[in-house]
């Protein structure tokens, strides 16, 4: 990324409506202009104008379907970049100064990986069990972790895409880190497929099932309170 790209990115993220639109797409789903403008509370014409700028800036992509045009974050790399920027920026902090809904604080998606109280607690447990170790602020999969995740058919090695296998992501409701990257994304996909978590329509909140509670304890030794 050159200096002009950084300046352009800063300009795009220097507007609270555009940040709110990006935040609305952080569940990895695609939305129409109407859905997004309702989420951020602006007119459809205003939302369309901002989405056009985000599209031109390479932060979002579109998916036409019938008469509708759906918007989503461009890809996981964009989500990773935005997560890092949001960790140091104020866009999310200002918008979420009010009390976090209990279901969102407990368990939710953060683009393609798990976030919330459960995610932070699981991260603590993985460190305690020597599945993950932090080298400074960088999480690393240990030999024990390689064996565990390979048994679940989850990737632990270097990624051809260049995306981090696992990295630190500051949880905005817990103010402590959970794990992001290819491995945590695969883990969430596995847990949803196994019905450990159930997603809710039009929400990033996830419901932890009784099967999930048992699975987290059996596989990772993590007993959710």
Instruction: Tell me which oligomeric state these chains represent.
Output: single chain
Class from helix and strand fractions: alpha+beta
Q: Give the proportion of residues in helices.
A: 40-55%
The major pleated sheet works out as:
2 strands, antiparallel
* Alpha plus pi helix count: 11
Radius of gyration: 18 Å
Which key phrases capture this entry?
two-stranded antiparallel sheet; single chain; 10 strands; alpha+beta; globular; 18% strand; 225 residues; 11 helices; 48% helix
Q: Explain this structure to me?
A:
With 225 residues, the chain is of the alpha+beta class. The protein has helices spanning 3-12, 16-24, 33-40, 44-56, 76-88, 91-95, 102-106, 117-128, 143-151, 182-193, 210-220, and strands at 60-65, 68-73, 108-110, 113-115, 132-135, 138-141, 167-170, 177-180, 197-199, 206-208. It contains eleven helices and ten strands. A two-stranded antiparallel sheet has the order 1-2. Strand 9 (197-199) and strand 10 (206-208) form a beta hairpin. It is globular.
Question: How do the helices and strands line up, and which of them pair or pack?
Answer:
Blueprint: H1 3-12, H2 16-24, H3 33-40, H4 44-56, E1 60-65, E2 68-73, H5 76-88, H6 91-95, H7 102-106, E3 108-110, E4 113-115, H8 117-128, E5 132-135, E6 138-141, H9 143-151, E7 167-170, E8 177-180, H10 182-193, E9 197-199, E10 206-208, H11 210-220
Helix pairs in contact: 2-3, 3-4
């Amino acid at each position: 990324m050159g200096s002009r790209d950084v300046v352009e990115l800063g300009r795009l993220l220097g507007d609270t409506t555009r940040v709110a639109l990006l935040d609305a797409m952080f569940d990895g789903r695609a939305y129409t202009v109407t859905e997004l403008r309702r989420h951020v509370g602006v007119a459809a014409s205003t939302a369309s104008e901002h989405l056009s700028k985000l599209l031109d800036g390479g932060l979002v992509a579109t998916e036409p379907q019938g008469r509708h045009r759906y918007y989503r974050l461009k890809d996981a790399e964009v989500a990773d970049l935005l997560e890092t920027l949001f960790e140091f920026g104020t866009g999310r902090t200002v918008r979420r100064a009010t009390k976090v809904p209990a279901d969102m604080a407990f368990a939710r998606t953060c683009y393609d990986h798990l976030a919330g109280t459960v995610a932070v607690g699981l991260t603590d447990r993985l460190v305690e069990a020597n599945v993950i170790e932090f080298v400074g602020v960088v999480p690393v999969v240990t030999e024990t972790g390689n064996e565990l995740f390979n048994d679940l058919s989850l990737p632990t090695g270097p990624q051809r895409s260049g995306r981090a296998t696992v990295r630190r992501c500051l949880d905005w409701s817990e103010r402590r880190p959970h794990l992001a990257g290819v491995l945590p994304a695969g883990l969430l996909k596995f847990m949803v497929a196994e019905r450990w978590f159930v997603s809710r329509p039009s929400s990033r909140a996830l419901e932890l099932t009784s099967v999930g509670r048992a699975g987290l304890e059996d596989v990772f030794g993590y007993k959710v309170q």
